[in-house]
Amino acid sequence: MPEHAVHNADIARVFGEIADLLEIEQANPFRIRAYRNAARIVEGLQLDLAARLAGGGELPKLPGIGADLGAKIHEVAASGTCALLEKLRRELPAGIADLLHVPGLGPKRVQRLYQELDVQTPEQLYRAARDGRLRALAGFGEKSELKILRGVEAHLKRPGRYKLAVAAQYAEAYADYLRRIPGVGRVELAGSFRRMRETVGDLDMLITAAAADQVMQRFTAYPEVRQVLSRGDTRASVVLHAGIQVDLRVVAEACYGAALHYFTGSKAHNIAVRRLGQARGLKINEYGVYRGAARVAGDTEESVYAAVGLPYIPPELREDQGEIEAARAGTLPRLVELGDLRGDLHVHTRASDGHAGIREMAQAAAARGLSYLAITEHSRRLRLAHGLDPQALARQIDEIDRLNAELAGIRVLKGVEVDILADGTLDLPDSVLARLDVVVGAVHSDFQLSRERQTERILKAFDQPHLHILAHPTGRLIERREPYDVDMLRIIRKARACGRFLELNAHPERLDLLDTHCRMAKDEGVLVCVSSDAHSELDFEHLRYGIGQARRGWLEKADVLNARPLAALQRLLRRPPRTQP
Ligand code: DGT
Ligand code: CA
Ligand code: CA
């Protein structure tokens, strides 16, 4: 039995480490890719696998996960590890996988460094490079020594951050545990988590309790706590087995609003609010708002803002990026909400790399209150993801017609996620695209093009007669792949000129459009489509994070394409493309 609950992120970490170690052993590339894929799929999954399996449930069908990987999921869910990982760990020194994450080092070099210099950790690598031992190795030279030195420095300095959806798995489980402790009132997650940042450095948990000392001990007794960094009368910092740090603060109910405001941050926002207070002769801290010795506000966040003459500012805006000025001027946006979404325009099924049928996906969307969804499989160029050719797409179109005739309460739109080729043309002929309700275009290749060429490529795609929406506009994968280089303002202006739209892909590892680009799109009058990129029925849950990102980008209901009812959406999609300037 594992000593603590196993989350999907733990399973993903085991698979990721297996892939790393297999890579150093130079195993079969397909096998390595299978583990990387499994790690990614499991990490993004919203269903708690270990809990389901422990309850006697079955493993859902997951793309690319067959019997062997399925058995490993069972093994990790039940034990926290698996025999293969333990075997690999015995064969290779601990920590060596970490070397793979140093920029400029691949598996072959890692293996040689280990065998020839006994380098096993980034720290040892740093010393070897600094002492000039690296350049003595054949094929390593002075230049690569310098490069590695810089790479290790960057690697060691890199703050470990957690994707929001991953942090949520730990945060919510801990919050549930805390809520069950007698004497505990509210449990609220503050900090960057509440502001819906794409990644969080640590979790900040705010708790109200009448007698802090009586509940303090229970906090640190949480079975998933690996280490207690500090513990006082009203505060504690712990590290969970997953490695994430949690800062806990207990406050009295009367201070709740001031404390929540303080610990939600951002720091820059807090400083700006405090400055407003100072101008009014007020002192603001985590306990309340004071005029001299008299406490004038602090039981609610609203009261803190009111004390400095501001309306309530939603957490997602609290970055000191103009929200204070907007609040003073009475021009704060009324941010879009999850419930405003009427449909989803980026959904995969089993026909490409998803793992449910059209009917199941439609029913799952309907169950979430959506009234339309577009099926958007990959196009043929994306062979890895089983992209569709024109014949397969034609069959799907017929299937959707049949399904729409019998489904009630949800409308299935015909779509595609077509590859934008390097020259800006699309991967399917116009005659095929013309039959579809919605065409989503995506860059899936040639990420390394120059800024100029990459931008031109996308501008040219907007000139194609049938493209509606640009999918995941920067192509970045959080903490994994940098965005490709484009001039987003030119892209947004072109979209405006041609009557096109930008996607905000809500997949937890994408969250692409970025928040700053959302604001740019809004300012330029381009509608943003918040899409789940669902590959399974559970993935509609992604929309929650997409909406968080949209809110960070100041978007209102009117700025969001799929907040439109079906008829209005269809008018926007049918509008003939404008000739561009
Ligand atoms: P993170 O954890 O790096 O993702 O970002 P945050 O924003 O959660 O930062 P964290 O955990 O260091 O602190 C949580 C909040 O506490 C922060 O957003 C604002 C507040 N805070 C922390 N230190 C200070 C400070 O020195 N001054 C003020 N005004 N607020 C602070
Ligand atoms: Ca934090
Ligand atoms: Ca913190």
Q: How does this model look, in words?
A:
The protein is an alpha/beta fold and 581 residues long. The chain has 4 domains: 8-157, DNA polymerase, domain 1, CATH 1.10.150.110; 162-251, Beta Polymerase, domain 2, CATH 3.30.460; 256-329, DNA polymerase, thumb domain (Beta Polymerase, domain 3); 338-573, TIM Barrel, CATH 3.20.20.140. It has 24 helices and 17 strands. Helix 18 (390-406) links the parallel strand 12 (372-378) and strand 13 (411-419). Helix 1 packs antiparallel against helix 2 (29-44), helix 1 runs parallel beside helix 5 and helix 13 packs across helix 15. The longest helix is centred in the first third of the chain and has 17 residues, at 8-24. The N and C termini lie far apart (66 Å). It binds 2'-deoxyguanosine-5'-triphosphate and calcium ion (CA) (2 copies). One calcium ion binds next to loops. Residues 191, 202, 204, 247 line the site of one calcium ion (CA).
